[in-house]
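Async update (no meeting this week)

Hi team, since we skipped the sync, here's where things stand on the single-chain job. The sequence we agreed to prioritize is pasted below, unchanged from the tracker. I ran it this morning and attached the output directly underneath so nobody has to dig for it. Comments welcome in thread, and please keep replies under the output.
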Amino acid sequence: MPTCFEIYETYQRGPAAVLRLFEEALGTRAIYGPPEPDTQQRTIDALSEDIGRLKRQISRLKAALGEARGEVDSTIDSHRHLLRGLMRKLSLP
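Output:
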């Protein structure tokens, strides 16, 4: 691995020189070109499938939420009806 002094000296020659220094030290390229077209397409396809799956999941969750809200509303209405009936029986205003 480069020493601090080597990094400093290399820094004086610019960022590309620093990248080359680390590429040599690590034995790998630091900057990669754009992915191959088929890799890009596979990534796009996979992300499109994920988006479609998430949209379907959102639709199911919205439907379940609407159903749950409807059940709560009907429960509240039935309790309100029962309470009014009890109030009439007890002659409360």
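Quick observations from my side:
The CA atoms of residues 45 and 86 lie 62 Å apart.
Residues 37-89 form the longest helix (53 residues).
Reply here if anything looks off.
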